[in-house]
Specification:
Strand order of the largest sheet: 3-2-1-4-5-7-6
Strand content: 5-15%
Radius of gyration: 20 Å
Number of helices: 13
Structural class: alpha/beta
Order of helices and strands: HHEHEEHEHHHHHHHEHEHE
Amino acid sequence: MEEKDNCYHVPVMLEESVKGLNIQQGGIYVDVTFGGGGHSREILKQLDGEGELYGFDQDADAEHNIPDDDRFVFVRSNFRYLYNFMRYHDVAGEVDGLLVDLGVSSHHFDDKDRGFSFRFDGALDMRMNTRAGQTAADIVNTYTEEALADVFYLYGELKVARKLASVLVRTRENKKIETIGDFLEVVKPFTGKDKEKKFLAQAFQALRIEVNDEMRALKEMLQQTLQVLKPGGRLVVITYHSLEDRLVKNFLKTGNFEGKTEQDFFGNVQTPFRMVNNKVVVPSDEEIERNPRSRSAKLRIAEKKE
C-alpha cells in the first residue's frame, strides 16, 4: 500500500499536518483532497478503533488508492460540495478536523496523458475530473482575448498576459491549439532560456486553475467549513502558491477573503477561528531534499471558536 502511495503522490508535511488535526479517539475527520491517500492513511492509523474519516476526490484515478477500512467513506466529488455531503451523511456540524492539501498530485504531473506538465507532449487537458468540463485546449481556443489575458494575469501573475493572449488568438485563427506541443510553440518567443521553466509553470498554473475553477471552489469549500466543523474543530490547510495562500490566510484570520478586520466594542478582531500556529509552518530542508515539490508549501492551522 505504501509503495503505491509513494508512486502516486508523496504526502507533504505529513506529520505536521496530521498532528495539527489534534486527533481525538472516536472523532469525525474529513480529508477533502484524498489523492494518493497518504494523509488519510495516517489519520486512520491515529484514530485507532472507533471514528470516521471521509475522503473527497473528483479524480477517478484516486479511487485506486481507497484504503480497505470500514471507518473510511470515499466521496466521489469536488470539495466545493462539502456541506451537502456532510449533511447527507448526517455529520454536518459534528466534524472534529478537516484537512486540505491544495497541491496537485505528482501522479498528475507525471501522467503525460493528463496535460498538466510541459515536460511531455499530449492533449492540452488539465481536468481533475476527466468525466466533465472544459479542457485547457477549449479555453485557449474559445476564450476572448480579454478573458485569456485575465486568466494569465490573475492566475499566472504573468506581466505579458495581454501580449500572450493576443498571440494565442491570432495563432488559433489559422490552426487550433490542441496539444501541449502546439501551446509551447506559440509561447516560445516569451520564454527566455533563463526564465523558461518559471514562465511555463506560471502559464500552466493559470490554465489549470481556470479549467478546474480552483479559486472559486476553494472559497466555497472554506466558507462551508464553518457549517461542517464543530466548535473547537481544527482546520488544517497546505497551500502551494501565493494566490490560494492569501485567500486561506485572510479567511482564517478575519473570516473573509479580503482580509478586512471587524472589531467588537473592546477592539477584539471578530473572526470565527483561533489561529493555532501564528507563524506559518514550512517543510524542513530534509523534506525539500527528499521531495522537491514540497518547497513552496505552507501549512496553516486554525480552530473554530466555541
